[in-house]
Fold this sequence. Notes:
By secondary structure, the chain is an alpha/beta fold. The chain has helices at 63-69, 73-76, 82-93, 103-116, 132-139, 144-152, 162-179, 187-193, and strands spanning 17-24, 34-42, 48-54, 97-100, 129-131. Strand 2 and strand 3 (48-54) form a beta hairpin. Helix 6 (144-152) crosses helix 7 (162-179). It is globular.
Amino acid sequence: AQPPARPFLSFHLERPLVSLDIEATGPTPETDRIIELGLVRLETDGTRTTSRWLINPDRPIPEASQAVHGIADADVADAPLFEDVAEAIAAQLRGVDLVGFNLRAFDLPLLRREFADTAVAWPCEGARVLDAFHLYRARETRGLADAVRFYLGRDHQGAHSAVADAAATLDVLRAQLCRYQDLPATLAELDVATGG
């Protein structure tokens, strides 16, 4: 006999739960613009519906952003502006709770700013927010000891000793350079690739 199927959520939904994701012109919620918004709405009875909007940001999409999400200027040239679809988006977000990955730091601040530039009121007032990114970071911590195990296949001896950590970091970098053949070949390019 098979065990009973585990419910998708271990708790009862009091109202719909909407998973929200945004692709944008860049990574800065204060200044970038939405170019794609996707919603997966989980109703209290377990049914799912999806909604997607391509949105013209009314500015060029930088090449670096295009490389991440694959959406080019031509893809959104005939798409509506955010203000033209704000009410339709708001209708899907009123009276729901929200879930996303890094939702609190990126998607919600960007979405709130976009709504502030329209005549449509912020539709997410009172929504509970579940951020899977925060759960991931809290439960699946990733530090130097984890990198040593992953890249070097050993335990990090002397963790949090400055010399041991510095030596392990150098070993991890060497392993990363060997593992990822597409990494830049010069120190200057690697500086840029690692956030410089």
